């Protein structure tokens, strides 16, 4: 399976595992003060043969956990947007990366928080034991899922060549050890899936990479052990296994702040901890607080994303995929990451890529609502297609200027019906999967069939943009953007509608008029002075 | 009439003037930086310096206004048409012919009519324009929610502020240049430093000052 960071990650994990026979290698969670020691539960002292067996043991005590999980987006991958009415979620959308889950299930559902979801046309398996408790709650650090196993962990004996969801060579998971280790999720539990979205480390989000397992303070002031040592769920608060922090319907602004005494437990916003006037009580602080009516905190406090040494993919051209050398797929590795690692810039399976590190975001008004170009939407192939459109504008009462990663690329569409298409890319044993057969016609036909969509049989490639709100990798305050980053002629907000930004337009009409006035005054004074000199008089003298 | 060396600018007035010089130059310099005319300062520090200087200048103006009215000095600044034409004619013509300045500084009237009119315009129009727009600019967040088009408003306010600032620059240029006309730069600046200037006093004024305010008179030479 072509995965750019596979080798190095394998190495890292192998080292971590070899040094950890019996030892705990998952980073410790601050404040673990549980009243239950799971090593003492009789039901967990068994030789588990499968993930679902462990889940059965968990829910024998945690009686409502399976039901709660089965109502969460982590399990259903399905989201009915409350404002646009669109049906979103991984089950339904098309993205600018590997395209779609439909048609590629066991590969994509390897990161499903459940077991055995092999067909997107069906809801995820509904038996209670289909929930994967361990992927989030394992604290032994050795639980994982195979990359192509529809959510199941690699168990003894592991077939040679098997990899995990992070791209590392798979090892046999000790389910009993995992079951007895459970606790609140650490950064690794979330990161093993979320840091690798899009097929590799930091490929998708740009602000979520393996650096966040143990980030230096300069990369993430909250998650760093030198900083607050937060886990993901310190901010992403939960209620009955429902998380805050949706990217489809986000809290772009939060006027409630910290709320009444006792921390708010309903949102993951910056304001829910920092309040609505977070800056120091001085003139500078007051001026900075004045900016919160137009700016998201993230805009100044995340000056760049993909920091800390892991690049993000910023361009993916599917249209060049499928070229072969001597009938064999090949790759090019022309991007060198700051850690010296070479990243793929061409793969026969995937086409051309561009990568960037320390990326300046683009900025847009955002009310939190995202509208997708779902498979049923008609596109204009003469224009760049926005795979997801971020909504909002100044003055709507809730939009703020947010930073975004803009993913650019080219991807397939139905050139008769003008729809983005679902593609069947993964399928080592099918004669239609693109990554095996390098035939777009077959891959699209199979993908559209898998998704149950109408397809004309004609395809082409269209330029696409996809937007990812940037909200992680908050820098220490001293590294926040300086005023001049935006308040300057070529500042970061250039071209953004609905802003008045002092310092960006020194050549406005009044500025020019003013300078002409000054020049005219100087000229008049000079002329007066010269005339006085030529008339031989210093000026009226008093004898 | 006798020429006497009289204190025409009391200590507060001199402080007022020079503090105003420092603050206005600071404001002009930082303000130009904020408008992208130069980039000698970073935007953030420039905003802070501009804001602090502006607040200090406002405080100074409040004190000065109080002082003007309690001391009666405000009368000095009331413009009079009388004599204005003569001064204007002098600057436009007479000065090149070596004529004397038509205005003689007198004790209760230290500004010439054109000067008084200029200061009147500054105090009643240009300075209020700059501080009203400046305060509106600074307090944007307080009122933005209660107007229909805050971006249009702040754009208009910022431009009015900028225009007033350029008018002040023009004033400063002419003000400094005119110090060179007549007795010359040095003799015009010295009174604003020492407070004393040589002016004609009527015998009554001389007698009054000698009796009631001897400190304002230097001994006759």
UniProtKB/TrEMBL annotation, chain A:
Annotated signal sequence range: 1-23
Transmembrane segment boundaries: 512-534
PANTHER family named among the record's database cross-references: CYTOCHROME C-TYPE PROTEIN NRFB (PTHR35038:SF5), DISSIMILATORY SULFITE REDUCTASE SIRA (PTHR35038)
Keywords for the protein's UniProt record, in alphabetical order: Membrane, Signal, Transmembrane, Transmembrane helix
Protein name as annotated: Octaheme c-type cytochrome, tetrathionate reductase family
The UniProt record lists the keyword Transmembrane helix: yes
Organism: Lutimaribacter pacificus
A Pfam family recorded for this sequence: Cytochrome_cB
Domain of life: Bacteria
Organism placement in taxonomy: Bacteria, Pseudomonadati, Pseudomonadota, Alphaproteobacteria, Rhodobacterales
Record flagged with keyword Nucleus: no
UniProt GO molecular function: oxidoreductase activity
Entry-linked InterPro entries: Multihaem_cyt_sf (IPR036280), Multiheme_Cytochr_ET (IPR051829), Octahem_Cyt_c (IPR024673)
Automatic annotation (TrEMBL), chain B:
Chain segments annotated as transmembrane: 21-41, 47-70, 119-140, 152-178
GO molecular function: electron transfer activity; heme binding; iron ion binding
GO terms, biological process: respiratory electron transport chain
SUPFAM superfamilies associated with the record: Transmembrane di-heme cytochromes (SSF81342)
Domain of life per record: Bacteria
Compartments, record wording: Cell membrane
Domain Cytochrome b561 bacterial/Ni-hydrogenase: residue ranges: 8-195
Leader peptide range in chain numbering: none
Membrane topology field: Multi-pass membrane protein
Pfam family, one: Ni_hydr_CYTB
InterPro entries registered for this protein in UniProt: Cyt_b561_bac/Ni-Hgenase, Di-haem_cyt_TM, Hydrogenase_cytochrome, Ni-dep_Hydgase_cyt-B
UniProt KW keywords: Cell membrane, Electron transport, Heme, Iron, Membrane, Metal-binding, Transmembrane, Transmembrane helix, Transport
Keyword Cell membrane (UniProt): yes
One GO cellular component term: plasma membrane
PANTHER family: NI/FE-HYDROGENASE 1 B-TYPE CYTOCHROME SUBUNIT, NI_FE-HYDROGENASE 1 B-TYPE CYTOCHROME SUBUNIT-RELATED
Recorded family membership: Belongs to the HupC/HyaC/HydC family.
Protein name (Swiss-Prot/TrEMBL): Cytochrome b561
Organism the protein comes from: Lutimaribacter pacificus
């Amino acid at each position: 399976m072509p995965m750019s960071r596979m080798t190095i990650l394998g190495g890292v994990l192998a080292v971590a595992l070899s040094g950890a026979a019996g030892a705990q290698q998952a980073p410790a969670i601050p404040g673990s003060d549980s009243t239950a020691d799971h090593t003492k539960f009789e039901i967990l002292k068994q030789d588990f043969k499968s993930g679902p067996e462990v889940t059965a043991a968990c829910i024998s005590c945690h009686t409502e956990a399976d039901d709660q999980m089965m109502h969460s987006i982590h399990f259903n991958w399905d989201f009915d947007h409350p404002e646009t009415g669109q049906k979103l979620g991984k089950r339904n959308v098309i993205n600018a990366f590997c395209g779609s889950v439909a048609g590629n299930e066991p590969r994509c559902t390897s990161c499903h928080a459940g077991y055995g979801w092999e067909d997107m046309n069906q809801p995820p398996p509904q038996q209670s034991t289909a929930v994967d408790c361990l992927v989030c709650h394992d604290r032994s650090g050795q639980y994982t899922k195979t990359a192509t196993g529809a959510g199941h962990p690699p168990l003894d004996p592991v077939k040679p060549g098997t990899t995990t969801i992070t791209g590392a060579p798979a090892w046999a998971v000790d389910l009993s050890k995992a079951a007895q280790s459970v606790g609140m999720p650490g950064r690794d539990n979330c990161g093993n899936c979320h840091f690798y979205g899009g097929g590799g480390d930091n490929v998708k989000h740009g602000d979520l990479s393996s650096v966040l397992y143990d980030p230096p303070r300069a990369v993430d002031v909250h998650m760093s052990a030198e900083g607050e040592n937060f886990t993901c769920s310190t901010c992403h608060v939960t209620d009955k296994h429902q998380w805050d922090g949706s990217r489809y319907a986000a809290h772009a602004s939060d006027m409630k702040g910290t709320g009444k005494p006792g921390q708010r437990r309903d949102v993951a916003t910056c304001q829910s901890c920092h309040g609505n006037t977070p800056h120091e009580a001085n003139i500078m602080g007051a001026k900075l607080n004045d900016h919160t009516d137009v700016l998201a905190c993230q805009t100044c406090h995340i000056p760049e994303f993909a920091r800390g040494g892991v690049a993000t993919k910023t361009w993916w051209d599917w249209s060049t995929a499928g070229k072969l050398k001597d009938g064999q797929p090949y790759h090019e590795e022309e991007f060198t990451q700051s850690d010296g690692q070479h990243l793929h810039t061409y793969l026969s399976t995937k086409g051309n890529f561009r990568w960037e590190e320390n990326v300046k975001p683009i900025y847009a008004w955002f009310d939190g609502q995202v509208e997708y170009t779902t498979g049923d939407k008609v596109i204009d192939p003469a224009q760049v297609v926005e795979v997801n459109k971020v909504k909002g504008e100044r003055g709507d009462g809730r939009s703020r200027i947010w930073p975004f990663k803009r993913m650019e690329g080219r991807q397939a569409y139905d050139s008769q019906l003008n729809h983005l298409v679902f593609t069947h890319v993964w399928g080592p044993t099918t004669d239609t999967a693109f990554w095996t057969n390098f035939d777009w016609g077959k891959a699209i036909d199979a993908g559209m069939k898998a998704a149950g969509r109408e397809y004309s049989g004609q395809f082409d490639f269209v330029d696409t943009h996809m937007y990812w709100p940037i909200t992680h990798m908050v820098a220490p305050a001293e590294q926040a953007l300086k005023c001049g980053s935006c308040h300057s002629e070529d500042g970061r907000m250039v071209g953004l509608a609905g802003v008045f930004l002092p310092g960006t337009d020194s050549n406005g009409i009044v500025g020019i008029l003013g300078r002409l006035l000054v020049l005219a005054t100087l000229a008049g004074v000079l002329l007066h002075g010269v005339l006085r000199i030529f008339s031989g008089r210093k000026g009226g003298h008093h004898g | 009439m006798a020429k006497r060396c009289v204190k025409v600018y009391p200590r507060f007035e001199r402080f007022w003037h020079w503090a105003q010089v420092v603050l206005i130059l600071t404001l002009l310099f930082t303000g130009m930086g904020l408008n992208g005319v130069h980039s000698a300062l970073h935007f953030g520090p420039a905003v802070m310096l501009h804001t602090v200087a502006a607040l200090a200048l406002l405080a100074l103006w409040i004190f000065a206004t109080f002082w003007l009215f309690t001391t009666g000095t405000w009368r000095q600044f009331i413009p009079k048409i009388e004599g204005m034409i003569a001064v204007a004619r002098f600057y436009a013509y007479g000065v090149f012919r070596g004529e004397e300045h038509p205005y003689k500084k007198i004790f209760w009237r230290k500004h010439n009519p054109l000067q008084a009119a200029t200061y009147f315009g500054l105090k009643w129009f240009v300075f209020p324009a700059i501080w009203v727009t400046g305060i509106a600019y600074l307090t944007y967040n307080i009122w933005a929610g209660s107007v229909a088009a805050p971006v249009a408003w702040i754009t208009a306010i910022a431009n009015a502020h900028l225009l007033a600032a350029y008018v002040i620059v023009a004033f400063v240029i002419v003000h400094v240049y005119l110090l060179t006309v007549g007795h010359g730069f040095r003799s015009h600046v010295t009174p604003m430093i020492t407070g004393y200037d040589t002016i004609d006093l009527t015998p009554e004024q001389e007698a009054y000052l000698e009796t009631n305010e001897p400190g304002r008179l230097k001994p006759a030479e």
